[in-house]
Amino acid sequence: MPELIAWRLALAALPFAVWFIWRAWAVRSGRAMGSTPWPWLFVGAAVLFAGSLIASAIFHPDTSHARYVPGEVTPSGGVTEGRLEKKAK
User: Fold this and answer.
1) How many CA atoms within 13 Å lie on the side-chain side of 32?
2) Cα 4 to Cα 76: distance, rounded to the nearest angstrom
3) What φ, ψ does residue 88 adopt, rounded to 5°?
4) Would you give the distance in Å from CA 18 to the centre of its chain?
5) What are the domain boundaries of the chain?
6) What is the pLDDT of residue 88?
7) What is the spatial distance between Cα 57 and Cα 54, in angstroms, rounded to a whole number?
């Protein structure tokens, strides 16, 4: 889960990173720069973030035909991991 949040934050930061890298390159090459387009950067970040949520919903594996088996305590005191098992027909 933390890596998924990190990927989504990186996607949201991508328009800002691209803009500021391009701006630094343009200033270094002598171009006159206008003001930073903050609304467009935030819209770009929101579009990429929303796209990642939509892609997660579309490409997430279907677990509707599976049954969750919770973890159990073993006689030796260990705990087994919970898992999904296919439902018997």
Assistant:
1) 0
2) 35
3) -75, 140
4) 18
5) 2-62
6) 75
7) 5
Token pair listed for 45 = 């970040």
Q: Angle, nearest 10°, between helix axes 2-28 and 38-59?
A: 150
DSSP state of 83: E
Residue 85 CB neighbours (<10 A)? 9
Q: Indicate the residue type of 3.
A: E
Instruction: Give the whole-angstrom CA distance, residue 41 versus residue 36.
Output: 9
Residue 74's identity, in one-letter code, is T
pLDDT at residue 32 greater than cutoff 90: no
Residue type, 87: K
Q: Which two tokens stand for residue 62?
A: 């279907």
∠ CA 3-14-8, rounded to 5°: 25
**pTM for this structure?**
0.68
Dihedral sign for Cα atoms in the order 85, 86, 87, 88: negative
Query: What pLDDT, on the 0 to 100 scale, is given for residue 54?
Result: 94
